[in-house]
Amino acid sequence: EVYFKNLSKQKQKEVMEKNGNNHKLRVCVATCNRADYSKLAPIMFGIKAEPQFFELDVVVLGSHLIDDYGNTYRMIEQDDFDIHTRLHTIVRGEDEAAMVESVGLALVKLPDVLNRLKPDIMIVHGDRFDALTLATSAALMNIRILHIEGGEVSGTIDDSIRHAITKLAHYHVCCTRSAEQHLIAMCEDHDRILLAGCPSYDKLLSAKNKDYMSIIHMWLGEDVKTRDYIVALQHPVTTDIKHSIKMFELTLDALISFNKRTLVLFPNVDAGSKEMVRVMRKKGIEHHPNFRAVKHVPFDQFIQLVAHAGCMIGNSSCGVREVGAFGTPVINLGTRQTGRETGENVLHVRDADTQDKILHALQLQFGKQYPCSKIYGDGNAVPRILKFLKSIDLKEPLQKKFCFPPVKDNISQDIDHILETQSALAVDLGGTNLRVAIVSMKGEIVKKYTQLNPKTYEDRLELILKMCVEAASEAVNVNCRILGVGISTGGRVNPREGIVLHSTKLIQEWSCVDLRTPISDVLHLPVWVDNDGNCAALAERKFGHGKGVENFVTLITGTGIGGGIIHQHELIHGSSFCAAELGHIVVSLDGPECLCGSQGCIEAYASGIALQREAKKLHDEDLLLVEGMAMKKEEVVGAAHLIQAAKLGNTKADNILRTAGTALGLGVVNILHTMNPSLVILSGVLASHYVNAVKDVINRQALSSAKTVDVVVSNLADPALLGAASLVLDYTTRRIY
């Protein structure tokens, strides 16, 4: 708690001001059982320690309030948290029907609680059926949801519940890189995913050196030594209750035969737990001299018990996750944790169908000591989560968006396709790649071809012609009628003549090039050529945020910085076709050198090349990589590494990104004071990283009459290709351009 109180006040103040009126984020943390509280408690302590930023409401439900499971709500009170609401939601019976009835009961009770609390965000943990009721209620009541530990893979119904909560949640905190990749594969927005590590590791990694012998003696007896006892924790598998009960019976038989002092924790409240308790009593575990059967152990004490045990056995996620932090040997039984990432301390017994198998596993594992594993965290999860919470903009639309991968469309046999779809051939000449696409009137990319952009003029023109001919031939097969060719290229372009006047340094041998004539001669189609920034603006005007907007500006944030200006619905080229060179607006007289030869341009601060330059400087000084980052020896340092480092808490990387965002924001302010657009659209790979910084600078620096401008991130996947297509489609279908 002391650590959280000492976090940087100035940085926090800036984030608060972004949400306006110093609004405190009202956070509801709902905990259902002893396991999820161990993950949520560190976050709750962090939130409680910063009352100037957060208001904390605690809701307790589920097995916390059941005597047979230890009345574990008391440990929340002992941690000095005020419990706002206690909800009795468990229908006893411990079978499948009781679980469903418990879900229904919680759904009936939760709306009244949420109506009274009116939280800005609800934090939900894990994969329990109780957590699903929380996420369902919050989602239907338009409350933002932060899901902890999404994206992980395990066995049983827990997987389905966890992924269902992921689909309902607006923000995600995951523990491992694999979990992060799973969330992205599930079409979740990467900008709303935080790879933080497991919150419980913040406590685990600082716990081992504390006094532990008194705890061991209290729970297992005065005669027990370290590394000479076993901790057993096994839960029912709800998709195969009969088998899981049989496996538990075999486990107890093996433990009796192994003849070591054993602490057995009662199972959770899932269907089948009542039968497992009957098995314990049938075998006399509660009265056996070698066993101590308990309903609940406080988490602080449980940490010490597993840290110094000779072995842990069962199927709890704690065994494959938290126990690895101490290198304690673990025997994981059955399929309940199948798919979890584990350290070398875990021995899996997938088919635990005989006592001998389990007994042999105990003989192999008991008393060993493995290297400590940090797969699930490095002890700094909570500071990352708090920073993530502060970055949430409550003004953003509540409706979540999914990032679906491109799907090949089937060609419908409707009248439009039978009569051919009016389309354009779009060409995008980038510094690295050369792309050609067939684009329909609706902005759908029907077919796309990509090749590396050749270094010489002759090879480049030859490849353009070859790809265009191939695409024009394919257009017949997909029922597309090509109306013309649109070309987007870097550099200064004379669109009236179809000539590239002067190229950027990224495209060599590309000055004074007539593109219109050779392509038109080969394809017998009209050809339009324009600068890539102008094409991005045209794409927004026809297909994106700029549709129907009279005055707006598009800024491309990529390898370089470019853009286009739409004024009174028309694209501005300027007297020498040099308008909208927005990347070369000077924002500092003594700033870094730009590729154009000047100093202090926006591009010298905020382009991908500029960020790569700064990333290399940090890397050369060994100041780039932080915990959680890894680079291959041959990997080239780039802007992506700088962004990743900033997300993981590298203050130097974060300062560089702040400076870049400020430079871009100052450039936008100059544009506002010159053109007075009603909309600014940020496009390109860096747009999402800069949008908040740009808004902040506008709020601080712009004239009050210009502050009403909307700043948005483009939702177009391929603005250069769509803009090139719009050159054709707008002109040939009614001469707008």
From TrEMBL:
One of its GO terms (molecular function) is metal ion binding. GO terms for cellular component: cytosol. Keywords: Allosteric enzyme, ATP-binding, Cytoplasm, Hydrolase, Kinase, Metal-binding, Multifunctional enzyme, Nucleotide-binding, Phosphoprotein, Transferase, Zinc. Pathway: Amino-sugar metabolism; N-acetylneuraminate biosynthesis. An N-acyl-D-mannosamine binds at residues 492, 504, 532, 581, 584, 603. InterPro entries: ATPase_NBD, ROK, UDP-GlcNAc_Epase, UDP_GlcNAc_Epimerase_2_dom. It catalyses: an N-acyl-D-mannosamine + ATP = an N-acyl-D-mannosamine 6-phosphate + ADP + H(+); UDP-N-acetyl-alpha-D-glucosamine + H2O = aldehydo-N-acetyl-D-mannosamine + UDP + H(+). The active site is at residue 532. Its EC number is 2.7.1.60, 3.2.1.183. Zn(2+) binds at residues 584, 594, 596, 601. One of its GO terms (biological process) is UDP-N-acetylglucosamine metabolic process. It comes from the Eukaryota. Residues 53-390 form the UDP-N-acetylglucosamine 2-epimerase domain. It is found in: Cytoplasm, Cytosol. In the C-terminal section; belongs to the ROK (NagC/XylR) family. In the N-terminal section; belongs to the UDP-N-acetylglucosamine 2-epimerase family. Homodimer. Homotetramer. Homohexamer. The hexameric form exhibits both enzyme activities, whereas the dimeric form only catalyzes the phosphorylation of N-acyl-D-mannosamine. This is Bifunctional UDP-N-acetylglucosamine 2-epimerase/N-acetylmannosamine kinase.
